[in-house]
Amino acid sequence: MRERASRKLTVTNWARGEGAGTKRYLEDFIARLGLAGFEPSISSGHLTRCRSDDSPLSRGRVLVCGDAAGLLEPWTREGISFALRSGRLAGEWAVRIAEAHDAVDARRQALNYAFAIKAGLGVEMGVGRRMYALFARRPGMFHAAMTGFRPAWRAFTKITRGTTTLADLVRTHPAARRALAAMDKG
Ligand SMILES: Cc1cc2nc3c(=O)[nH]c(=O)nc-3n(C[C@H](O)[C@H](O)[C@H](O)COP(=O)(O)OP(=O)(O)OC[C@H]3O[C@@H](n4cnc5c(N)ncnc54)[C@H](O)[C@@H]3O)c2cc1C
């Protein structure tokens, strides 16, 4: 990430996945690290899918979480913590649905699960979508700002360590909120 972004990289289609472009970027990156020439024993990729606002989170007494619900961070595509956190919520609400008095109560609990997901992970995904949109618009500039501006880099490392989230940063740091709003406009 601290390496300079490749000029050849196009990111406009990353939401759908652009296998060949991503592969070129990886090869470039490996070469810049001086590791070109080593044959990888396994090389694979995977198309990750993010939910949209109206993607279902339940049907009847079935709740979906993690990848099945399209819950992952739109910018970094981090999915493990989203799977764990949504899995825990799904477990909690599955108990409530199992203990529901009737179908109406079960339905209410399923809606409450969807509400809990949207109020927590949904907010995080909203900030991630904005970050992704900025990155896609100006990948080189975004990359330079992220790696060259010390507070931004510190924030990024905290996010990747899991000690904070994008949504928390924006909520607790007015400067981050202002910077994001300014970049949205720019
Ligand atoms: C190549 C790759 C690299 C990734 N790298 C990262 C990363 O670096 N960091 C990160 O945060 N995320 C990463 N992700 C995403 C992350 O792995 C997923 O978001 C996360 O594992 C989702 O967890 P999950 O429990 O929802 O689904 P999964 O981990 O896919 O678990 C679903 C399980 O259900 C099983 N299953 C499916 N159908 C059935 C069935 N009918 N009956 C019984 N069992 C079934 C599957 O075999 C699987 O074990 C990566 C994903 C891929 C594919």
Task: Tell me about this structure.
The structure is a single chain. It is built from eight helices and two strands. It is mainly alpha-helical and 186 residues long. The chain has a two-stranded antiparallel ribbon. A hairpin with a 2-residue loop joins strand 1 and strand 2 (62-63). The longest helix has 19 residues, at 80-98. 18% of the residues are buried. Residues 1-14 have low confidence and may be disordered. Bound molecules: flavin-adenine dinucleotide. Flavin-adenine dinucleotide binds next to helix 2.
Physical arrangement of strands within the biggest beta sheet: 1-2
Number of E-state strands: 2
Any idea how many domains? 2
What structural class should be given to the helix and strand makeup? mainly alpha
Strand content: under 5%
Average pLDDT score: 85
- Which sequence of SSEs, written as H and E, runs from N to C? HEEHHHHHHH
Q: Provide the gyration radius in Å.
A: 19 Å
What ligands does this structure carry?
flavin-adenine dinucleotide
Largest sheet, in brief, is: 2 strands, antiparallel
Overall geometry comes to globular
Distance between the termini: 23 Å
Determine the number of helices (DSSP H or I, runs of at least 4 residues). Answer: 8
Roughly how much helix do the residues carry, as a percent range? 55-70%
